[in-house]
Specification:
single chain; 126 residues; mainly alpha; 75% helix; elongated
């Protein structure tokens, strides 16, 4: 005779219940995830910043005609896609430069703020 809580565990966590459909779902989902990673790698999205920027330019050139084709096939009308003048590598470089600039002046600013704070405290004590 099984222990008292065994049936409760089996019902709650479906232990011992296996369906071939679940195995197929796992294989299909794993295959789709693997294909997505492979496509991202193949298109250069997992490479350097310049490869990512080139992939973005290709996508911006290819996606609007493809979307237009599908919407005409389905019968929908969408507003025109906005034009972006955006370079991820330039934005990344600007962000890195801003952070490094802030870090380079941080010790000087910390000394200035400390002196201002001590001066404020001295004025309050007087």
């Amino acid at each position: 005779m099984p222990p008292e809580g065994a049936c409760l565990l089996r019902e709650r966590f479906q232990i011992g219940i296996y369906s071939p459909l679940e195995g197929r779902r796992f294989v299909i989902k794993g295959s789709l995830a693997g294909a997505a990673v492979y496509m991202a790698y193949d298109q250069g999205l997992l490479g350097s910043g310049t490869q990512g920027a080139e992939a973005l330019k290709k996508a911006q050139a290819v996606l609007p005609p493809a979307i237009q084709e599908w919407t005409s096939y389905i019968g929908w009308e969408l507003p025109p896609t906005p034009k972006f003048d955006f370079s991820p590598s330039d934005s990344w470089n600007k962000g890195v430069q801003t952070v490094m600039s802030a870090l380079s002046v941080a010790p000087t600013r910390a000394c200035e703020y400390t002196m201002e704070g001590w001066k404020y405290v001295k004025d309050l004590v007087r």
